[in-house]
Amino acid sequence: MSKTVPVGVSARHIHLTQEHIEALFGEGYQLTEFKPLSQPGQFAANETVAVIGSKGQFDKVRILGPARKASQVEISRTDSFAIGVKAPVRESGNIEGTPGAKIKGPKGEVELEQGVIVAARHIHFHTSDAEKWGIADQQMLKVRVGGERGVVFENVIARVSDSFALDMHIDTDEGNAAGVKTGDTAEIID
Q: Fewest beta carbons less than 10 Å away: which of 44, 102, 122, 125?
């Protein structure tokens, strides 16, 4: 049985706490939905912010909602060089000891002490998909993408939950290197 998964190429984005949303956009502010994402209940917000590092900044970085318990910026390795933030490869949510950045919104600024990462490549599995394919949460997988620049991605983390929908997430550097775009498919080979 082929273990085919859809691919989502994730551009730089930010997750914010409600406290930081209000500091950047005003007291009581609520994010508004631009479009739904592949994971149930998650959305790209209409709102954007500037992310500022020691060497530069990115304007109009999309906020993903809903609000989170910790603020986190996800950038590519190329982005990391461009703004002068040595972001480590980490699984989402694992921000302890990571560098920070300044975040600027229309009503204020926030200095993140930590939270800038290059997201580790991963696949979201609904529990039923993982069980069907014999895949365990946190298992490291090898995944092949075909095409003219086909590659095998190693160290792809399996993330399993009843609240997830099947989707592989890679960043723009990885997508560009492999000639892959959102909506393409990949095959788990190990």
A: 102
